[in-house]
Amino acid sequence: MTERFAVEIGRIAGQALYPKESMLAVEERRKNLFIGIPKESSFQENRIGLTPDAVKQLTDHGHRIWIEAGAGSPSKYSDNEFSEAGAKVVYSTKEVYDADIILKVAPPTYDEIEYLRPGQTLISALQFGSLTGDYINALLRKKINAISYELLRDKSDSKPVVRAMSEIAGSTVMLIAAEYLSISNDGRGIILGGITGVPPSKVVILGAGTVAEYAARAALGLGAEVKVFDNHIYKLRRLKHNVGTQLFTSTLDKTVLYHEIKQADVVIGALVAEDGRMPCMVEESIVAQMNPGSVIIDVCIDHGGCFETSELTSHSRPIYRKYDIIHYCVPNIPSRVPRTATSALSNIFTPILTEISKYGGVSEVLFTNEHYRSGVYIYKGSLTNAQIAKRFGMRYKELGLMIAVRN
């Protein structure tokens, strides 16, 4: 009897030392969210975070959504569509910032930052190319949680928003090129592609990422001759595999690259900045030797561009000519097709908001889903992004430790 008692005591003690899996699991504590969607005030930003269909999906599950009047107009969504979907249309920016979660596409302006209050969560872009230390300090003073969707990763460790916008940009640049090659825009007067008996147009793409992949797909589909340059062999190999066809690829050998650029009808700059620097800059003297009426589209203009002749343009004035070469250097190309871009963003943000609700709040979803932490750069008023801290010489805290202590 004594032996059996001792065994039972040992079993109970073992259970105490080794918690059951159910004790480790995070309890699902569903919480209704209060989401605010301001009207975008930034220059050239035509997208919005949620479509009316997504709003209906969220409001049907008990979430409150306030949207500023006119916020959907650039994407061709009316206030009435959002109202019918269950959102409340408000008529001042200050009012929409009463929400607990602010969902924006562009970063808030300094004036909009003043509307933020401690404890709120901001989901928006951060735009590293134009980021300043003063801007980060302005956000830190508000003691908010801030999530950059450019940094946000999913369970596959890819960046869903960056990829979606890159797919749109890559597909759109070839439509832009076709438009400006036309004689109606004083271009070379050639078709982007090829027809029987006529040599195909020549497209050179700098970079082998997502933008390049979708640009190459579109150009090849039209029958153009496509040549891709990048210094990352694995990216070139992946591009060839994804496109599924034989494709001319090369490293950024200037002798070969410059020879091809001089003969090209269209040149797409889609290189990714590394440590803030472009891995290649096409010199002005090379641009001057291109065929008159050719088109340069510099997709990476928001990171300084990869052509020495690149200058920032806008959707209202998208092009200029230099050496009789048409330059299209508009940042934020997805805003050219805002309804498509809005649908893509909505497909990403809706599940994220649903997850936040499912786990009972932002802190809880970060504790449970480690991949979401990549997007957080401010947590409870503290900087948590090492890259930003290093860039501006600021202190930061380890997000994982902050969340662990809290929970």
Automatic annotation (TrEMBL):
<feature type="domain" description="Alanine dehydrogenase/pyridine nucleotide transhydrogenase N-terminal">
    <location>
        <begin position="36"/>
        <end position="169"/>
    </location>
</feature>
<dbReference type="InterPro" id="IPR008141">
    <property type="entry name" value="Ala_DH"/>
</dbReference>
<dbReference type="InterPro" id="IPR007886">
    <property type="entry name" value="AlaDH/PNT_N"/>
</dbReference>
<dbReference type="InterPro" id="IPR007698">
    <property type="entry name" value="AlaDH/PNT_NAD(H)-bd"/>
</dbReference>
<dbReference type="Pfam" id="PF01262">
    <property type="entry name" value="AlaDh_PNT_C"/>
</dbReference>
<keyword id="KW-0560">Oxidoreductase</keyword>
<protein>
    <recommendedName>
        <fullName>alanine dehydrogenase</fullName>
        <ecNumber>1.4.1.1</ecNumber>
    </recommendedName>
</protein>
<dbReference type="InterPro" id="IPR036291">
    <property type="entry name" value="NAD(P)-bd_dom_sf"/>
</dbReference>
<keyword id="KW-0520">NAD</keyword>
<feature type="domain" description="Alanine dehydrogenase/pyridine nucleotide transhydrogenase NAD(H)-binding">
    <location>
        <begin position="181"/>
        <end position="329"/>
    </location>
</feature>
<dbReference type="InterPro" id="IPR008143">
    <property type="entry name" value="Ala_DH/PNT_CS2"/>
</dbReference>
<comment type="similarity">
    <text>Belongs to the AlaDH/PNT family.</text>
</comment>
<dbReference type="Pfam" id="PF05222">
    <property type="entry name" value="AlaDh_PNT_N"/>
</dbReference>
